[in-house]
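Listing 4. Sequential folding, example run.
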Amino acid sequence: MTIEEFEKVVEKMRPEWEKVQEQKKCHGRTSRLPVLEDKILCIILYYRTYITHRFLS
């Protein structure tokens, strides 16, 4: 994935993320990843490595 592709994903996700954040009734704990870009990157990395582990087992 290129940087431009990643930025497009973030642009598409941001409005939906803001809707979810506005609908929260209880705020709970603060996230260790406060920036949306960091959260999306972690999800992408998780899926990338999870598929590899899935094929190994």
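-- end of first protein; second protein begins --
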Amino acid sequence: MTDHLIAPHGGVLVDGLAGEDRIAELRELSRDWPSWDLTPRQLCDLELLLNGGFSPLAGFLRRRDYERVLSEMRLCDGTLWPIPVTLDVPQSVAEAAAKTGFLALRDPEGVMLAALHVEEGSRLRGGDRLTFVGRADLVGIYRLPAASYRPRGSTSPSSIPSGTPSSKR
């Protein structure tokens, strides 16, 4: 049924959503992690990373990809990519995440939406913010609602649209 669809950009459709067992495990583990309440822009980036909208990206850009995107609008593998998708956080959050190796990403109400395994952090711009540019395990535990940068109403899994990126094609 999907044989008539064109291939996703970069040839890979990314599905960043965790299964039920992994969600329970991440919730338990994240109690000891630092967390970051995402800004509206960061929520949009996270949604597109997790739902495959930013395929072939499976997470925030690594430094080499970031620099190549800025200079050539391409990823290191040559794939056309004009958007520098990064996660800016204050230095204090970056330092705490570097110690644990993980960062819980939350919505403005404090609901954990995703877990980020921190591979790499770099100061990409001036100021007191550090930008995570490591992909590693960015795993979504809730599907963010489409066309909205912020969950509204109940945040129980049953109220959040379901389905994988491939099921929406």
